Amino acid sequence: MSREPANYCVEDPEIEEVLDMDSGELLPVRDAIGSDFDKLMRLRMELAEANQTEEEKYVCPVCGVGVYLVCRRNGDEKRFFFRHRSESGNCPAITRGEITKEEIEARKYNGAKESRAHIRMKEILFESIRRDPDFSDPQVEKVWKGMERGTWRKPDVSAVWRNSVRVAFEVQLSTTFLHVIAQRRLFYREQGGLVCWVFKTFDAEAARLTQDDIFHNNNRNLFLASEETLRASGERSALILDCRWAEPRLGADGVSWGWNGRQAPFAELTLDTGGQRVFLVDRESLDISELQAVASEELKRRFSAWWAAQSLDEESWASFRTEFRLRGVSLPRWPREASGLLNALYTAKAGRVVGWDHPKFISAAHTVAGSHKRVLRAFRAALRAYGRADQIAAEDSEGRWARKVSGYKAKLAARDPEYERNRNFDSLIAFLFPDVWSILSREDEG
Question: 104-285: what fold?
Answer without folding.
Answer: Trna Endonuclease; Chain: A, domain 1 (3.40.1350)
